[in-house]
Design brief:
Layout (H helix, E strand, L loop, with lengths): L1 H31 L22 H22 L16 H13 L10 H12 L8 H10 L3
Helix pairs in contact: 2-3, 2-4, 2-5
Length: 148
């Protein structure tokens, strides 16, 4: 009986060490960005609206600015070509307005909310500039957001 008890205690110690080791590995992997899917915590699965804030909003603002720089008045119906919104991570009136215009020209329901359809259209439009160094900020933001 004592022998079985010792075996169980030793097994329990090994299991704890394995668990601690795997937990530490997961912590390190998460902090340095290894062993994670390309869009782990991707923004494209998050619905953004007025009052939202954070990295996903900044990614979206950067993508909208990149598109505005290259499509300008013709595409975004905003004054002058290259008109930019602040990239501050805050989904305020400027971001809401730009999203509404983007939705309108993309043939989407215009509600100023960035949901799955708006993300899909943003990702699609940004993908056209993947090989252009001029589009690098928007492409980097799209990658960070989980578009590709």
């Amino acid at each position: 009986m004592n022998r079985v008890y010792n075996h169980i205690v030793n097994l329990s110690k090994r299991t704890k060490l394995l668990f601690v080791g795997l937990s530490a590995l997961a912590l390190v992997a998460g902090s340095v960005g290894i062993a994670q899917p390309a869009n782990a915590a991707g923004c494209t699965s998050v619905t953004l609206r007025y009052g939202a804030g954070g990295r996903c909003v900044s990614d979206e603002q950067t993508m909208l600015n990149t598109l505005s720089s290259y499509y300008g008045n013709l595409h975004y119906a905003v004054s002058p070509v290259g008109s930019q919104i602040g990239v501050d991570g805050s989904y305020g009136p400027q971001t809401t307005s730009r999203v509404r215009v983007f939705q309108q020209i993309s043939g989407l329901a215009v509600d100023g909310i960035t949901g799955p359809q708006t993300w899909s259209a943003l990702c699609r439009d940004i993908s056209y500039g993947v090989n252009s160094s001029a589009w690098a900020p928007g492409v980097a933001a799209a990658r960070d957001a989980g578009c590709f």
